Input
Amino acid sequence: KMPVRNVVSWSAMIACYANNGRPFEALELFRDMVLENNDSFPNSVTMVSVLQACAALAALEQGKVLHGFILRRGLDSILPVISALVTMYGRCGKLEMGQRVFDQKKEKDVVLWNSLISSYGIHGFGHKAIQIFEEMIDNGVSPSHVSFGSVLGACSHAGLVEEGKMLFESMVKEHGVYPTAHHYACMVDLLGRANRLEEATKIVEEMRIEPGPLVWGALLGSCRIHCNVELAERASQRLFELEPTNAGNYVLLADIYAQADMWREVKRVKKFLKARGLQKVSGRSWIEIERKLHSFMSVDEFNPHYEQIHALVFKLSTEMKEKGYVPRTDVVLYRLDDEEKERIVLGHSEKLAVAFGLINSNHGEPIRVTKNLRLCEDCHTFVKLISKFAEREILIRDVNRYHHFQNGACSCGDYW
Ligand SMILES: [Zn+2]
Ligand SMILES: [Zn+2]
Output
């Protein structure tokens, strides 16, 4: 243990966790800091890190507590704190609160504008994101790399192909900002999702920098959506060279082969994974109930609530089946019988977290779940139906964007 703990050493530790993908630990440490409470009051630096952790976890209730603390201690005059607050609300699915915090701040820097643009982007409000981007320029603030990343991402989530292309072209011409691999990846994603794979490939071929894993990954992702085996093989070949230990790429390729009913190839890819000792990241979802985060792994028999939740998921699925739900067992990449596949699909972490939310929250309260990977097709259909028949608003943030389920439909328009 550190002999003397002061606000600087606490903040450094919390920032270290928050910036290294360990938000759970960051929040825990912050709690310890507040509890210990001997004169080490959190300052603005601490606040930014803790807000980042809340944003990563979509821990809205804890984020709100921090907001109150920030106001009481007068930290709301500090721009980075305000930007972190806007981002936190956006990533926790409370866009209107983020907008309000943004509006209250009179002088705004590019970071604050970016926070709002990306908030609208991940919720699929592409036009709104573009509008704010333009407002920023009208206010005399020059867009940065990050601004373009956010606004292009917003176009991609909303399927705004022409708008995205125009913005991309304006980068160098009008703003002197040279695209990085991230911007190219956004464009490939935008075109790829819209099934304009030829144009996407052309972008990759004509890049003025080396297309890294980001760009090839975006291309491979597009191939999954449109089941293009040939292009997928090309993209994954490059990815295997660039990131030999990233299991996700192999899984994605296997997924594409499975969609194309090429089971021998699925087997080959899996064998390769096994031989290299690589393991895919397992699906994990979490939900905040009364300021406490509850985390679920797929088919999580270790979770103390598992039996109760699984029984509910099973009951729900039986009811949904009567209403037309057909489990998408094809998302399971194993050759098992359908019953076994169905058991796996019903045990997906996002279903467990949603069911836990249904049990532990009041009717009328929206359910907010966060998932570490992309939401699968089956869970998407399942949650759409639940939102209708349980009459619940359900928000799920996956690794790419927000899905806002209401009355049987999703805000992504089934395009994600
Ligand atoms: Zn699923
Ligand atoms: Zn959706």
